[in-house]
Write a structure and sequence with these properties.
Rossmann fold, globular, about 350 residues, nine-stranded mixed beta sheet, alpha/beta, about 15% strand
């Protein structure tokens, strides 16, 4: 037996022992590099462009934070860049909650706009939606010379995800996305807009849910997003599931959050689910939508379902992304917000 073979067997033995000793109480993975990461130049990896964050005071004094515009160095008046508008989860008005995600997208050549809204529990949904929309408009008014708004994407999490169809509808009415439009919906809360049939069939749609979401029931994403956009021809439902080896990659509501390590529902820690599940898919969806790149299409829609490999488990694959053409729901969970209780939170808005 060669020394190389002995060393290889020793690594396997050590991995098995570590896994066995930790299996009784597997802790969340604390470091991103417990898995392989997308290679430089690949979808999901940081891009080649330096990023400058610009801050604009929101016109509504009730909004507790400024609008942030992440501008990549390649965006100039001569070569304006496509733009991605981001809508945050409720209470996540500080851009730092999503900073790593926003910068990853911008570093790959997209202007990214983060528009906060009030966390006042008694504010109406039309008020919050208008605050997001006003923030997007303000960013375009001040930095529109660096943006190609004919190529526009809308990405959002939780409350912001529920708002995406309404924001995209307004964007379409303003002429945004005429040469490429996408929506990337993550763990949506209820949607309070109307006129979603005005969103063109050529738009691209990804609805992403997290299997152990303890906040928003998957049925909300199905009924308030998926079922209300039947005209869209290219769309996918994606599920990220909890993955375990000697540590755990949770698939909770906070998967897209990158800046709050105290989040108890799977957010804050940057890990494989961020790089491979969220960043890689939005990045590829943007490229496919704006350039028609077919490799990007396979990744964006999850036909390429890779989520990286465990470094300490002989490079065993992390649980793959599940991508389908119809909703797949966790019907055994007990999340805080359910579809049946939508009207409890209407705050005067029309409710089915």
């Amino acid at each position: 037996m060669t020394k190389k073979t002995v060393a290889f067997i020793s690594v396997i033995f050590l991995t098995v022992c570590l896994y066995a000793s930790a299996s009784a109480q597997i802790q969340p993975c604390a470091l991103s590099k417990v898995t392989t990461l997308p290679l430089a130049g690949d979808y999901g990896a940081p891009g080649p462009h330096a990023v400058a964050r610009q801050s604009i005071q929101h016109p509504d004094a009730n909004v507790p934070a400024p609008v942030s515009v992440f501008v990549p160095a390649n965006a100039t008046a001569q070569t304006p860049a496509p733009v991605i508008f981001f809508a945050h989860g409720f209470g996540g008005f500080d851009y730092l909650y999503y900073d790593a995600l926003l910068r990853q997208l911008a570093s790959n050549g997209y202007v990214v706009v983060f528009a906060p809204y009030t966390a006042n529990l008694f504010a109406s949904h039309p008020t919050r939606y208008q605050q997001m929309w006003s923030g997007f408009q303000l960013a375009v008014s001040q930095y529109g010379g660096l943006m190609d708004t004919t190529k526009a994407g809308f990405a959002g999490h939780s409350y912001g995800a529920g708002a995406l169809p309404e924001l995209a509808r307004r964007g379409v009415a303003a002429g945004w996305g005429s040469n490429g439009l996408f929506m990337f919906v993550m763990a949506a809360w209820y949607s309070w807009g109307s006129g979603y049939e005005q969103i063109p069939a050529s738009a691209k749609l990804v609805v992403q849910v997290y299997w152990d979401d303890g906040t928003n029931q998957h049925l909300i994403s199905q009924n308030d997003i998926w079922n209300r956009l039947p005209q869209i021809q290219e769309r996918r439902w994606q599920v990220i599931r909890t993955a375990k080896t000697i540590c755990t990659l949770p698939a909770g509501h906070g998967v897209p959050v990158t800046g709050n390590s105290s989040d108890p529902d799977g957010g804050g820690t940057i890990n494989s689910h961020d790089y491979w599940g969220v960043w890689r898919r939005i990045h590829a969806l943007a490229d496919y939508t704006f350039t028609g790149n077919q490799t990007a299409r396979q990744i964006a829609f999850g036909d390429d379902a890779r989520m990286g490999r465990w470094r300490l488990a002989v490079l065993r694959p992390v649980t793959p992304l599940e991508a389908t053409s119809a909703p797949v729901l966790n019907t055994t969970s007990s999340p805080q917000f359910t579809w049946a209780n939508k009207c409890v939170y209407a705050l005067g808005s029309p409710c089915p």
